[in-house]
Write a structure and sequence with these properties.
Shape: globular
Largest sheet: 6 strands, mixed
Radius of gyration: 26 Å
Number of helices: 15
């Protein structure tokens, strides 16, 4: 059984469904105003590993992840782009889905959007106003009164900072996102402003739009009711976003809201913070241009322990590529020894737990607070000790099934044989193809020029009788 660190209680908790059947968990999804970067995907990949470990361990799940398609940023940037909010956010949502697929993330069972749940959000605000937990300001915006909820701060342990709710009586935050150390009544409904353009809806308090914190609570109540198993997100969401979700949800609906909280620690790049100014806020497209495949990115993101900061470097992607090639070589040896290409699918593994043998320690580590680096260590230890030549075809088949079961838990996709050429970015592959054609035409001057261009981009062409391979310099 999987045990996981719970943010609220600060203890390891057994992860099992409240209803004894299906574990229901909610993940805060992306704000679709630009491409998701590797820091975002650190969280989404670890949530995917969490789900995989549960399902492969025999626990069905219902995974809900939202899309934020209306907030300060989406409105601002859609207007800069000169397109409607719906068109703007749809394009970025499509890219997010393609990136998730490239990283081999399982799609959520439902993916509700903020714009698609405006009526539910308005009803929740109405309930909070009627119960005295929210009030309407002079401009028609509606704020949650945090002093009306004595348990405010329990999730993020703000109570340990001697929180005085009385001091917030005249302090408000109208921004969707604000300083992490600011304790203030937060906005539930934002009255229409000129900069909102056509992005507004009618409410009992006038024209406006929901605040960012509200959408998750409304969606969770619609899909899961008042109580559910687990809530997840990046550690930066603990306060104020998740703290505000708890307050407005419990005050509006009653119940206990999320029983457990799973937060993933942030990602560093080259030992420092990601920022546009430093040019290290990498997207999958950025890394592809540098010749790094999503499978290597997934390996790095999944291989870091979620409760510690992960230091992402370009050299770590090279290490991941080497590790994946080693895993692939082991798989080829097992395939040859077993005499069959087939292995069970993910769905088949979920339905029937295989005998893990020497890979059992890796599975145990995954169930011990998702200790992925320790689990990977056990995988390579098992590979080292495996005596493949001594195995019968049946034994090799069982061992290969166990190996692929652990790969499925990580969501690792092994490189295929002879795919070195395909790992280079498109620009490099195009130049290399042109160079090969020039060589066939005996245009040696052009071939040499194109080889030099490829080299300038950090790649070496290795000729074969029937073609060529590309390798990093």
């Amino acid at each position: 059984m999987l045990h996981l660190y719970d943010t609220r209680t600060r203890t390891a908790q057994a992860i099992s469904p409240m209803d004894g059947k299906t574990l229901r968990f909610y993940c805060c999804g992306p704000t679709v105003y630009g491409p998701a970067h590797i820091g975002n995907f650190r969280t989404f990949v670890m949530q995917d590993v969490f789900r995989r470990v549960l399902e492969l361990g025999g626990v069905p799940t219902t995974h809900i992840r939202n899309l934020t398609d209306v907030d300060d940023k989406t409105i601002r940037d859609s207007q800069k782009a000169g397109v409607s909010l719906a068109e703007f956010t749809a394009g970025w949502a499509d890219l997010f889905h393609r990136d998730c697929a490239a990283l081999n993330c399982l799609p959520p069972h439902a993916e509700p959007s903020a714009v698609g749940h405006i009526p539910e959000q308005i009803r929740m605000v109405q309930t909070l106003v009627e119960k005295g937990h929210a009030y309407v300001s002079e401009d028609g915006s509606v704020y949650f009164r945090i002093s009306s909820f004595p348990e405010y701060g329990r999730l993020s342990h703000l109570d340990e900072r001697e929180l005085d709710l009385g001091k917030t009586a005249n302090t408000r935050s109208n921004a969707d996102e604000y300083e992490k150390d600011s304790v203030a009544d937060f906005v539930l409904w934002k009255s229409r402003r000129p900069e909102d353009g056509d992005n507004f809806w009618t409410s009992p308090w006038g024209e406006g739009r929901p605040g960012w914190h509200l959408e998750c609570s409304a969606m969770i109540h619609k899909y899961f009711g008042n109580d559910f198993d687990l809530h997840s997100g990046g550690v930066d969401l603990v306060f104020p976003h998740h703290e505000n979700e708890v307050a407005q949800s419990r005050c509006a609906c009653g119940g206990g809201f999320a029983r457990l909280w799973f937060h993933i620690t942030h990602l560093l790049v080259d030992g420092g913070k990601m920022s546009k100014s430093l040019g290290n806020m990498y997207t999958l497209a950025d890394l592809d241009k540098l010749g790094h495949k999503p499978s290597a990115v997934r390996y790095v993101l999944a291989g870091g322990y979620y409760r510690r900061p992960l230091n992402f470097t370009l050299s770590s992607l090279e290490d991941a590529k080497a590790a994946l090639n080693r895993l692939s070589k082991f798989d080829i040896q097992l395939r040859n020894a077993s005499g069959t290409d087939s292995v069970p699918s993910y769905e088949e593994f979920c339905a029937a737990f295989p005998e893990l043998g020497i890979f059992q320690p890796a599975w145990d580590s995954l169930n011990d607070d998702l200790n992925t680096p320790e689990a990977l260590g056990h995988v390579f230890s098992a590979i080292k000790k495996a005596d493949i030549p001594s195995l019968s075809p049946e034994e090799a088949t069982r061992l290969r099934n166990a190996f692929h079961f652990i790969l499925a838990a990580f969501g690792i996709i092994l490189p295929e044989e002879g795919q070195e050429k395909a790992q280079a970015p498109e620009e490099v592959r195009t130049l290399a193809d042109q160079r090969w054609q020039a060589k066939q035409n005996r245009d040696w001057t052009e071939a040499d020029r194109l080889r030099a261009e490829v080299a300038a981009l950090g790649w070496v062409i290795k000729d074969r009788k029937d073609g060529y391979d590309l390798a990093r310099k």
